[in-house]
Amino acid sequence: MDAAKIKQGLAKRDFLGFTHLDAAKIIELFDYSLFIKKQRKESPSVSGFLPLRDKTVAMIFSKPSLRTRVSFELGIHELGGYAISLDGQSIGLGSRESVEDVARLLSRYNDAIVARLHEHAVIEEIAEHASIPVVNALTDLSHPCQVLADAFTLYERSLWHETVKVVFVGDGNNVANSWIELAGVLPFHFVLACPEGYTPDHKVLDAAREKGISRIEILHDPVEAVTDADVLYTDVWTSMGREEEKEERLKIFSPFQINSTLLAKAKPAAVVMHCMPAHRGQEISAEVMDGPQSIILDEAENRLHVQKALLVKLLNHDQYRKFHLTHRLRNASRKIKA
């Protein structure tokens, strides 16, 4: 961190995961996301609401991206900022130039860094040396922006509560790790149904369980796992970087497909989620993905709104605090009148 900022006592805000947040801060972010979403629908023109005016965000993509890139670039633009997309291979992150030098240089040019990378240690190193906020837009270990949007999607539908049962059916991958990390902050019932040998990161799991906030289960029978579930969630069986395991995984994971038979074991009103991209006929059947219980496109859209809220929180905290102060005063006024 720059010496000047340390001197002023200003703590740099990053979003690498959920471990440094608490439940109240996440709910505050969800409430601001609701405001952001409503504001966008009611005001097609963003001319009157530009909390990131004149802000620039460097976005490093070392992995392919559709939803992450579009939602961040569009969100930054709608908030009045400017996004600079950088290909990780082209800039030679960690090869042509050291991670430390890239982080320090980008800090001189920009107001924030959003990075979609392979090794999680690299984004931690970027955050260590950058003097501006750093956002984890996916690593091999975690995908917190995705899970933030997922949980917000349940929150806006009034489906989020301490006993909500979220069942992740599939691989114990980076998305599953972020769900588990969230369970160490927000109370709910999380179940991962995965084959033997495909469990999540043990450090993430142990840390979340030690906090004792949520009920966290790892099961290997998908039918047992989804019984009485409120939410069925899945992801691709073969994550980026593991393509050589595809054929073997197709055989091992075939009993873990979310289809109408498995969905029938959940609660009648259960919803189905998928972080996409999806492979119809593999981890999820087409009839379920396109069926009435699917909220998959809703959660994909919400990446835009949640990430916009997150960027305002990180880059214009005064605007963010002002909203919550006004919101609290308005609610207090309503209670007094009542």
CATH T-level topology of the largest domain? Rossmann fold
Helix/sheet category: alpha/beta
Mean pLDDT: 92
Q: SSE order, as H and E?
A: HHEHEHHEHEHEHEHEHEHHEHHH
Number-wise, the strands total 9
**Overall body shape:** globular
End-to-end Cα distance, whole Å, is 48 Å
Task: Report on this structure.
By secondary structure, the protein is an alpha/beta fold. The chain folds into two domains: about 5-140 and about 305-315, 3-Layer(aba) Sandwich (Rossmann fold); about 160-295, Aspartate/ornithine carbamoyltransferase (Rossmann fold, 3-Layer(aba) Sandwich), CATH 3.40.50.1370. The protein has helices at about 5-10, 25-40, 65-80, 90, 100-110, 120-130, 145-155, 175-185, 200-210, 220-225, 245-255, 260-265, 285-290, 295-315, 315-335, and strands spanning about 55-60, 80-85, 110-115, 135, 165-170, 190-195, 215-220, 230-235, 270-275. Helix 3 packs across helix 14 (about 295-315) and helix 7 (about 145-155) crosses helix 14. It is globular, with a radius of gyration of 20 Å. Residues about 1-10 and about 335-338 have low confidence and may be disordered.
Pick out its properties:
338 residues, alpha/beta, Rossmann fold, 2 domains, 5-stranded parallel beta sheet, 4-stranded parallel beta sheet, disordered N terminus
Short structural summary:
The chain has helices spanning 3-8, 23-42, 67-78, 88-91, 99-109, 120-129, 144-156, 174-183, 202-211, 222-226, 246-253, 260-263, 286-289, 296-315, 317-337, and strands at 56-61, 82-87, 112-116, 134-136, 165-169, 189-193, 215-219, 231-234, 271-274. It is α/β, with parallel strands linked by helices.
